[in-house]
Amino acid sequence: MRNEAIDRQATDASPGTDRAGHVETHGADHIPASERHGRPRELFWVWMSANVIYLYFVIGGVLMLLGLSLWEALLITVLGNLWWAVVGLLAISGPASGTPSVAVMRAMFGVRGSRVFGAGLGVAIGIFYEIINIAFATLAALALLAGFGIELPAGAEWAVLVVVAGLSFVIGVYGHATILKLAPYFSAALAVVFIVLAVFVFGAADFSYAPVPMAPAEHWAMLLLGFAIVASSPLSWGTGADYARYLPADVSKRAVAWWTALGGFVPAIVIGTLGVVAGTAIDMTDPQLTIAEIVPGWFTPIFLAMIVLSSITNNVLVAYSTGLYAQGLGFRVSRAATVIITGVVATAAAGWFVFIAPSFLDTLNASLELAVTVLGPLVAVYAVDILLRRNRYDGRALTDERRGSPFWYHGGAFWPGVIAMLVATTVAALSANTTLYVGPIAAALGGADLSAIVGPLVAGGLYAGLWLTTRPYRDPAARPAATDAATGVGPHSAASVAVGDSAASEGHDETTDAAASAHRDLEVPA
Question: In this structure, are residues 164 and 134 in contact, taking their beta carbons and an 8 Å threshold?
Answer without folding.
Answer: yes
